[in-house]
């Protein structure tokens, strides 16, 4: 394009930016938000359905950066945009530490937000009385998750993860294990197996086969080491089990004719939901692909939004309602690699899954939670101008070495190794003007060299939508979350016996000034007043 054509374009862009951000713009925007807040009513219905979305490692920094990226992919400046959960009416903070660790791991935190008690790092579905790695210490410490309680309450249940379905977060929904790594029998040390502990995949198939829908990765933990993987099947890709068990066949034979197993998207799309009561989908030997790599998968994988849609379609045929957990498991892995691109694009895919759930359900009877287990050592820094590319460098400032730096960085991780190498080889850090910072595999700078970037210890957010979401209202211990789920959904195990309130009339003319309360009061008071008038006039 010739320069004289560019100039008006540039000016009109500048003009629209200038006029759209004057006092009237921001006052109108804030007034609309105020109006929404004033119209907010407390939803005190019963959560017939619960959808529990968990972004592994999805801290507030990650959601801000992903929100900006999403807007910029649509040609906008990005900062003003919103992800699905940004529109939820209630938000609180979650303190994530484990009982023995300042910065948490995913197993102890999953025990907190699914089973309701904080626990030691690395342990699943057992309380702080147990020792990590000690099978003998487990007896008597087991705690059940809200998924198990939902099943007891007669609900349909489902579990989705883009990680292995035996990985820490989904495993806390059904397993009790002194060690998160015991995903298949080969990982359980002989002396622990002798104490009677069985691996996580076997616990899923043998002790929790009530779960109606299980979709994710992790075939290796279900197949014997003599069975070739169906997708990559050569002699180097077999199952990991050394006990000869084929847990997929075992699951199919127990569940019978209403059960289906699939391992690719084509087969998933062909499943007849009307005749399928149980569905197991394992789409990769290990974790499912990152969203950016998904379309290149050999046999085809569903997106997290597609899995969520299918799950809601299948589970909502149960008239008692359902409990569904959906984990975006690889936001965390992208961060561990120091690759913000993978973490952020998986966060956007997760947003699409949440948006799909909002679209398909009714906030009157469906509680939707979006939260994270823990944060990461991830930062958005500098003073870049509005709309500056989120993967790019600060366009207004250099470091004190007069070299540009990127907006996104980590406190530790693989980027620190590259940085240390650069100092060793050149005596200086790389100049990011020439870096390939937009590429899918680009590793952000990090201060401390480390093979894997670490989790972060800051609070994470809880976004809530639907019945009793207002019970998320401040800074909570993470293990509070399932207590609200139990209360909102009336699971029978609830200590506060929430279900009794289902038959109670709400307080007559007290509480919130919601129109229906006023209407109810009016319907009582008005006839009363007219009776009194009638009596006086007689
Ligand atoms: C399996 O691995 C071995 C050793 O790395 C290699 O020589 C062989 O070509 C591999 N087989 C296939 C089918 O990839
Ligand atoms: C499978 O596991 C068994 C038991 O540990 C072992 O003896 C065998 O060599 C393994 N087979 C393969 C193909 O790795
Ligand atoms: C995926 O496939 C497309 C085209 O088929 C190719 O351009 C792209 O590089 C591939 N991406 C990866 C991560 O392999
Ligand atoms: C998907 O799985 C089905 C059932 O095992 C199989 O027949 C089909 O070939 C697979 N599709 C692809 C693309 O691998
Ligand atoms: C940053 O340093 C580069 C030279 O490395 C220079 O060209 C550029 O103008 C500087 N930018 C700012 C914002 O100071």
UniProtKB/TrEMBL annotation:
EC number, as in UniProt: 3.1.3.1
Active site: 106
Signal peptide from the UniProt entry: 1-20
One GO molecular-function entry: alkaline phosphatase activity
Catalytic reaction annotation: a phosphate monoester + H2O = an alcohol + phosphate
Highest taxon of the lineage: Eukaryota
Keyword list, A-Z: Cell membrane, Glycoprotein, GPI-anchor, Hydrolase, Lipoprotein, Magnesium, Membrane, Metal-binding, Phosphoprotein, Signal, Zinc
Enzyme class: hydrolase
Membrane-related topology note: Lipid-anchor; GPI-anchor
Compartmental location: Cell membrane
Family assignment from sequence similarity: Belongs to the alkaline phosphatase family.
PANTHER family linked to this entry: ALKALINE PHOSPHATASE (PTHR11596:SF5)
Annotated protein name in UniProt: Alkaline phosphatase
């Amino acid at each position: 394009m010739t320069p004289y054509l560019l100039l008006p374009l540039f000016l009109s862009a500048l003009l629209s930016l200038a006029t759209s951000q004057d006092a009237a713009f921001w006052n109108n925007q804030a007034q609309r938000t105020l109006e929404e807040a004033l119209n907010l009513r407390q939803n005190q219905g019963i959560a017939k359905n619960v959808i529990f979305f968990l972004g592994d490692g999805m801290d507030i920094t990650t959601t801000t950066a992903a929100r900006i990226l999403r807007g910029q992919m649509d040609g906008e400046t990005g900062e003003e945009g919103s992800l699905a959960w940004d529109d939820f009416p209630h938000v609180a903070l979650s303190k994530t530490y484990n009982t023995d660790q300042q910065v948490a791991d995913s197993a102890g935190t999953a025990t907190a937000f699914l089973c309701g008690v904080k626990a030691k790092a690395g342990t699943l579905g057992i309380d702080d009385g147990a020792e990590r790695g000690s099978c003998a210490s487990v007896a008597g410490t087991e705690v059940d998750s809200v998924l198990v309680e939902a099943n007891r309450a007669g609900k349909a249940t489902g579990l989705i993860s883009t990680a292995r379905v035996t990985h820490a977060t989904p495993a806390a929904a059904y397993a009790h294990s002194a060690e998160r790594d015991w995903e298949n029998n080969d990982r359980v040390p002989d002396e622990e197996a002798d104490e009677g502990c069985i691996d996580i995949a076997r616990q899923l198939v043998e002790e929790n086969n009530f779960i109606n829908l299980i979709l994710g990765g992790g075939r290796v933990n279900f197949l014997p080491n003599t069975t070739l993987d169906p997708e990559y099947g050569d002699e180097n890709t077999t199952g990991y089990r050394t006990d000869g068990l084929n847990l997929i066949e075992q699951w199919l034979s127990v569940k019978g004719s209403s059960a289906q197993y699939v391992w690719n998207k084509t087969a998933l799309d062909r499943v007849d939901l009307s005749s399928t009561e149980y569905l197991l989908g394992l789409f990769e030997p290990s974790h499912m692909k990152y969203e950016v790599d998904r379309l290149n998968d050999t046999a085809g994988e569903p997106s997290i939004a597609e899995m969520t849609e299918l799950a809601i379609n299948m589970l909502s045929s149960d008239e008692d309602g359902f409990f569904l957990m959906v984990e975006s498991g690889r936001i965390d892995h992208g961060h561990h690699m120091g690759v913000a691109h993978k973490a952020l694009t998986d966060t956007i895919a997760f947003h699409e899954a949440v948006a799909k759930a909002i679209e398909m359900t009714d906030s009157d009877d469906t509680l939707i939670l979006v939260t994270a287990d823990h944060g990461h050592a991830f930062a958005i820094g500098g003073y870049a101008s509005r709309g500056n590319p989120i993967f790019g460098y600060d366009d207004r400032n250099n470091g004190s070495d007069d070299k540009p730096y990127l907006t996104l960085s980590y406190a530790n991780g693989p980027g620190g190794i590259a940085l240390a190498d650069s100092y060793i080889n050149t005596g200086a850090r790389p100049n990011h003007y020439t870096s390939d910072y937009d590429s899918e595999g680009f590793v952000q700078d990090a201060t401390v060299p480390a093979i894997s970037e670490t989790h972060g210890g800051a609070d994470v957010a809880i976004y809530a939508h639907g019945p009793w979401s207002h019970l998320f209202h401040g800074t909570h211990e993470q293990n509070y979350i399932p207590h609200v789920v139990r209360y909102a959904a009336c699971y029978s195990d609830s200590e506060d016996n929430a279900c009794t309130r289902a038959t109670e009339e709400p307080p007559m003319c007290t509480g919130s000034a919601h129109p229906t309360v006023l209407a109810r009061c009016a319907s009582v008071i008005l006839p009363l007043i007219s009776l009194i008038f009638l009596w006086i006039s007689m």
